[in-house]
């Protein structure tokens, strides 16, 4: 990714911090930065600065033309470079347009949640500077669909993902005038360099083994490889699909969901005590220590809390699988929290 040297005028900074609500300076700051980026991009494209003599030069500048650009912080004027011997190209406008389209479509969720179309129109007009009609929104959907489909179908075989976390997001979808709940299955991967990446998603019955299997098969068909550990909650259909589609892969049961199950079976007066003891098992430095603490817990609560003891004994292997990994990996892979935060 190219890096550009950006300067900010002191007058713009003054306006940014001391200006009134309408002239807060944010739009002027954005205008200044983007115009500097355009200048840097044209220098990069023609391989020569102003008045620079070089054999690498590809074209010559021919001034610029003003381009009014509507953004969420107001309308700004960009000075788009012209070239004598060719056409200046930049992805700036198309990238911003995709971002703006996604923003406008996200506003439709407000309609689903019961706010009138008129209010949505007012919100988009306030934030974007223009009003969006139903036909405009429909057109935005058509333009974004192929972009999303292409991204969700991209090959995954350029990297190895030893760790994958899966979860489901529940959405309200308006179909034929009725609002229905649908599940969105989401997979996030961690590659060998430790970077997280959203791998893909699919609409389906999130309680069904067939739906999860279809989702996992699609990830494998796209080139998902190198998987060693998969993290998820304990939905039966999901777990069955994991064992069927990823044979030989270790399954880590989400510790957050596991703890909820344990505390849900615990009387209120004992929850704090049980939480501390179960947390000690999950935070143990290794499997033998965790097993020792679990056995102590079972011996102590066998008569008092037999249901809780059974939950912990039955789930021990799956909920402590992460303890076989080096300590630096455990925190991020013991739960599905990272995907849940992404869902939010």
Give the structure's gist in a few sentences:
The chain contains 13 helices and 7 strands.
* Rg calc: 27 Å
Major β-sheet, in short?
5 strands, mixed
Name of the CATH first level of the largest domain: Alpha Beta
Q: Total strand count, please? A: 7
Distance between the termini: 29 Å
Helix percentage range? 40-55%
Indicate how many domains the architecture comprises.
4
CATH-defined topology of the largest domain = Nucleotidyltransferase, domain 5
Q: Your description of this structure?
A:
- The protein is α/β, with parallel strands linked by helices and 344 residues long.
- It has four domains: 10-90, no CATH class; 95-152; 163-253, Ribonuclease H-like superfamily/Ribonuclease H (Nucleotidyltransferase, domain 5, 2-Layer Sandwich), CATH 3.30.420; 255-337.
- It is built from 13 helices and seven strands.
- Helix 7 (236-245) links the parallel strand 6 (229-232) and strand 7 (250-253).
């Amino acid at each position: 990714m190219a890096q550009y040297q950006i300067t900010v005028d002191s007058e713009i900074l003054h306006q940014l911090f001391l200006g009134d609500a309408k002239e807060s300076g944010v739009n002027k700051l954005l205008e200044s930065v983007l115009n500097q980026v355009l200048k840097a991009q044209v220098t990069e494209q023609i391989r020569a600065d102003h008045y620079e003599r070089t054999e690498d030069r590809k074209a010559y500048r021919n001034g610029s033309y003003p381009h009014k650009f509507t953004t969420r912080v107001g309308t700004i004027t960009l000075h788009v470079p012209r070239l004598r011997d060719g056409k200046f190209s930049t992805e700036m406008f198309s990238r911003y347009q995709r971002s703006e389209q996604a923003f406008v479509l996200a506003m439709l969720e407000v309609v689903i949640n019961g706010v009138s179309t008129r209010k949505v129109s007012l919100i988009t007009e306030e934030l974007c500077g223009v009003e969006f009609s139903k036909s405009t929104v429909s057109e935005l959907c058509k333009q974004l669909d192929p972009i999303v489909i292409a991204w969700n179908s991209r090959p995954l075989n350029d990297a190895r993902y030893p760790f994958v976390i899966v979860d489901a997001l529940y959405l309200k979808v308006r179909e034929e005038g009725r609002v229905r709940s649908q599940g969105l299955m989401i997979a996030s991967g961690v590659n060998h360099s430790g970077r997280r990446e959203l791998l893909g998603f699919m609409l389906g019955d999130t309680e069904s083994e067939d739906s999860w299997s279809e989702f996992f098969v699609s990830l494998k068909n796209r080139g998902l490889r190198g998987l060693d550990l998969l993290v998820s909650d304990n939905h039966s259909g999901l777990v069955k699909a994991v064992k069927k589609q990823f044979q030989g892969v270790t399954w880590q049961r989400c510790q957050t969901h596991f703890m909820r199950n344990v505390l849900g079976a615990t009387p209120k007066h004992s929850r704090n005590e049980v939480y501390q003891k179960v947390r000690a098992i999950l935070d143990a430095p290794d499997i033998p220590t965790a097993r020792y603490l679990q056995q102590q817990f079972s011996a102590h609560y066998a008569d008092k809390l037999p249901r809780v003891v059974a939950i912990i004994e039955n789930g021990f292997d799956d909920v402590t699988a992460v303890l076989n990994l080096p300590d630096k990996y455990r925190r991020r892979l013991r739960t599905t929290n990272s995907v849940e935060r992404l869902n939010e």
